[in-house]
Amino acid sequence: MTDTLVISLDAMGGDSAPQIVVEGAALARERHPDVRFLLYGDETKIAPLLDQHPLLAAVTTVHHTDSLIRNEDKPSTALRSGRDSSMRLAIVEVRDGHAAAVVSAGNTGALMAMAKFVLKTLPGIARPAIAGIIPTARAETAMLDLGANIQCDAENLVQFAVMGEVFARTVLGLERPIIGLLNIGVEDMKGVEAVREAAAILRETRLPIVFKGFIEGNDITAGTVDVVVTDGFTGNVALKTAEGTASMYSGFLKEAFRSSWMSKLGYLFARRSMQNLRTRFDPRRYNGAMLLGLNGIVVKSHGGTDEFGFANAIGVAVDMANHGFIEKMTDDFNSLQAEVNSPKEATG
Amino acid sequence: MTDTLVISLDAMGGDSAPQIVVEGAALARERHPDVRFLLYGDETKIAPLLDQHPLLAAVTTVHHTDSLIRNEDKPSTALRSGRDSSMRLAIVEVRDGHAAAVVSAGNTGALMAMAKFVLKTLPGIARPAIAGIIPTARAETAMLDLGANIQCDAENLVQFAVMGEVFARTVLGLERPIIGLLNIGVEDMKGVEAVREAAAILRETRLPIVFKGFIEGNDITAGTVDVVVTDGFTGNVALKTAEGTASMYSGFLKEAFRSSWMSKLGYLFARRSMQNLRTRFDPRRYNGAMLLGLNGIVVKSHGGTDEFGFANAIGVAVDMANHGFIEKMTDDFNSLQAEVNSPKEATG
Asked: Using N-to-C axis directions, what is the helix angle for A261-281 and B261-281, rounded to 10°?
């Protein structure tokens, strides 16, 4: 990749914007020296921050705007009155071909609504979804939807499966990613209708998808599959439950090490291993949720992250752009559409 | 409690039945010396096991039956052909007033169907639910439904809230348990319709319920509330996701301690604290899911548990019986019914 990649940033999204955005971009520049940045936001706040990062400033163009989307804004409000917002203008750069991807740590609902309105969905995709990467006992697993679609029919779930498959193949670099549908049991008759119907379609499809069938909640972190497909309500609850459980466990671990002088001493010896363990679960490492199904790469950073987390979100966007994510997604959905439109040949 | 409590056991339910059932009862007898047991199952297998526990044998009556419910039996099959099964006969003892509660480690779907058919639901309850206890950063939280009802309307969720409240008050011993509805955000407009409607009803109710409002997945293990209310699909996924995450974390912790001689040495010093930590998360401690809403106490043990786990499930049944769970539940549902039937008085 010798071509310069341009990433567009909503400098005003997130709890500590624009500081974490500028500092995150400075870190990302070190890791990806070929990337250039377009920053949208309040120049009076951005300029002094950029002054501290001359190497970043050299590859960055700042576009001033006073308008921004607030965390409490409803998606409809954002769409109506956010025309000049830093978020929308950053997305427009992707639509207009000036940037390969956009990253924002702002309001998720507004970002999804705005990105859908500006970029449109890829042909054949009814609803975009939010995907994330989760650490597992084996490696990493992608999960979608994480909250964009709280009710899903079988067709939505099948589309999520295809989107997740392309994502795992291109960004996670897996040759034949294994897809699982989240359910409350592995038997055919288990679960809600949409899930059972989606499984039936995925079992029959001629698309080259490796479909494992149903998986259960404990399979997510066990790493039983590479892509977990579920509706946005269940996915959001499962993700946050996993995060909450890991955080409870690490709190108890800290407490255990502090509970006696013997265990304090034990910690001194085991410190390096424990630090590695903490790094393994560091939520900043997994920062950067992908809005999949849009005609453009959009990455959502956690609003409360710091510069390390934001730099990782930029890294996700760079990976997706470098791997030609949108082109591969388009190809796969063309095949899916062709299959749906042509009656299946009689077999056997 | 000087009266003798009788607990009825399905001796043939569970992966290692009847062994774990008999040995679990022997352990439970030590903890609850006033309890007597009725055992249903294959006497040729039960008798030699009981011979090894003469103190248990002295307080146990064995009723022989050849028939049993298999794990793979559908609830409808179990209902149709399980009339003489150990599971059904054990439940019948509760209906007939010969036992205060029944415990089974058998097929969950069959147990729920059979218990509902034999015991019926309490007046005012449309659907029974499965409740469990989860360790949290603060203490313990009850969660329901864990899988009995995969789709729920607002009324079901409100009834689960009332059932959970009674459970937390009587069995967990909390004076004013706090109830939360699981959702994907805390704002009023978030989530599916049934959840939003249920919240509206719980906010308005004249029942003396402390309703926190919406909670998110991470709140479950944070212990933000004492009772987590959700549909059986989401609850099942959340519970298993939490279990899976804890198990992944403890696997990584073990690995970290083994990763160098320094950390191995550290483990030696911290061993006692680490053992306490393991005990805190021991799933056997939380074994025993409650089938709530039935006209009788029914406790479901995990099918794969051992005698310690099964003894804990018996302990849950003993607690519920000793605390007059069914009577308190009946009272509360009478109040709820009265409220539903009488139009709310105009206020303010």
From this structure: 90
